[in-house]
Amino acid sequence: MSTLWHGRFDDNPAEEMMAYTASIGFDIRLAPDDIACSRAHVRMLGRAGLLTDAEVTDVLVALHRTELELASGEFALAPGDEDIHTAIERRVTELAGSAGAKLHTGRSRNDQVATDLRLYAKRELAGIASDVIALQQVLLERALDAGDAYLPGYTHLQRAQPVLLAHHLLAHGWALARDVDRLVDARARLDVSPLGAGALAGSSLPLDPGATAAELGFAARFENSMDAVSDRDFVAESLFVLTMVAVHLSRLGEEIVFWTSDEANFAVLDDAYATGSSMLPQKKNPDVAELVRAKAGRLIGNLTGLLATLKGLPLAYNRDLQEDKEPLFDTVDQVRLGVRAMTGLMTSIAFSTEAMAASADVPTAAATDLAEHLVVGGMPFREAHVVIADLVRRSLDGEASLVELVTADARLGPTAAELLAPGVAVTRRTTPGGAGPEPVVAQIQRFRSRLATDRARLAS
Ligand code: ARG
After folding, report:
1. Which residues make Cβ contacts (< 8 Å) with residue 434, sequence separation at least 6?
2. Quick one: average pLDDT of 147-172?
3. Which residues surround ligand 1 with Cβ inside 6 Å?
4. Residue nearest (by alpha carbon) to ligand 1 atom 10
5. Selected catalytic residue, list 98, 156, 204, 460
6. What is the pTM of this model?
7. Is 395 annotated as catalytic?
8. What is the DSSP letter of 415?
């Protein structure tokens, strides 16, 4: 078996050693980035006079051919191909001969893999940010369709105060807006090229890291070669930002599980986004919503696992760092699939606004409005709270309905009792950012313009 490093060794690597240490099984997905990285590197080597123009051309042609083979599935792995960097260099050398053998001049897999992974992360974070924006757009559209529909807002999973359905949907939308912000921000911070750092210390050859950084579309080159090859902050940060998206999806998912339950009956899933039971013929299950709830746990594991890998690692490169890729790939895949599935689910779910209203229109949901009615009349809130709590307790004890007790109470009377009429409470949430129709109109405007701003940020 021939490896990149066999010159130093008398014996061949053991099969078990290769099986355990090889990363080709998963880092093959870095192929497009590795090719891009090699193109920039070889052109730079040409400008530095380390390869002739003809050699540069030969390597570029071989890289192109290798790229096509990888894309079409024709690419054949050799036994010594321990990772994608080795595999591509081996193939380029087969195709371009001695020019190919010059490709790795002034370069180490340590700076190469860090460069590849940053290119990958840049692309994926941007892609996921636009997927998240598509989900936000659906939440906005559903909020617009929802009009004045309202449902109970909960604290402690007990009905607290009625809220517009639009308000509830946009609450999830704003959480996702922070995710988009974090994705864009993390992407900007990782936009630094490590190429040219070599194994850890740079090179004696006249390399130009600034030029390769620019050619690869990075905003900057590394400042310190040791930091460049050992920094995986960008993976940890990407994992956190993506896991936060997953956690937000899990909270929306939990909402959907509850809304579609027989107990709430607030919504019905579209057939395309529901699953059946193998035994119970009547079932229509919210498996997508349950899986986004569950997968957040796995992704939290990816994040904490990587942080544990990084903790206490000495500078500079250690093979431990190879363990950065599987968690990142898994998290990227799962977040992308989850966002897209939830986008479809939220597009097609049918809201049962009558059931929502019926559930929200329990008189106790307006208890705070009664207390605030007394406050407007001059009573201190703490005292008003006691007065209304007493009426609620008496109605729960069966003395009379809350409406009757309020009507009969000299401090409240029939005008206050009108606050308990169905649909009234939600209209009284009038403060900025509040859950009633008036502020929600303004909120929708602000949400819409935030989406436009974020789209523009992503496009630039
Ligand atoms: N497959 C390795 C990784 O993912 C590439 C770097 C290997 N470097 C080394 N010194 N063995 O980290």
Report:
1. 167, 440
2. 97
3. 23, 27, 83, 109-110, 113, 317, 319, 321-322
4. 110
5. 156
6. 0.95
7. no
8. H
CB-based burial, 23-47: b 16+ in 10 Å, e otherwise: beebbbebbebbbbbbbbbbbbbbe
Structure tokens at 369: 């409005």
> 346 vs 139, 252, 261, 339, 351, CA distance in Å?
7, 10, 16, 10, 10
- What's the pLDDT score for residue 277? 84
Tell me which of 6, 261, 277, 449 is the catalytic residue: 277
Task: State the fold for domain 362-421.
Answer: Ribonucleotide Reductase Protein R1; domain 1 (1.10.40)
Q: Which of 110, 117, 321, 325 to mutate to test the pocket of ligand 1 (most atoms within 8 A of CB)?
A: 110
Give the 3-state secondary structure of residue 7. helix
pLDDT tens string 402-446: 999 999 999 999 999 999 999 999 999 999 999 999 999 999 999
Active site residue 98: no
Euclidean distance between the first and the last CA atom of the chain, given in angstroms as a whole number: 47
Q: Is the dihedral of CA 146, 152, 153, 157 positive or negative?
A: negative
Separation of CA 113 and ligand 1 centre (Å): 7
CATH architecture, range 6-105:
Orthogonal Bundle (1.10)
Class (C level, CATH) for 110-147+162-359: mainly alpha
User: From the alpha carbon of 23, which atom of ligand 1 is closest?
Assistant: 1
pLDDT tens per residue, range 233-288: 999 999 999 999 999 999 999 999 999 999 999 999 999 999 988 888 888 899 99
Give residue for tokens 């190429």.
Answer: 195
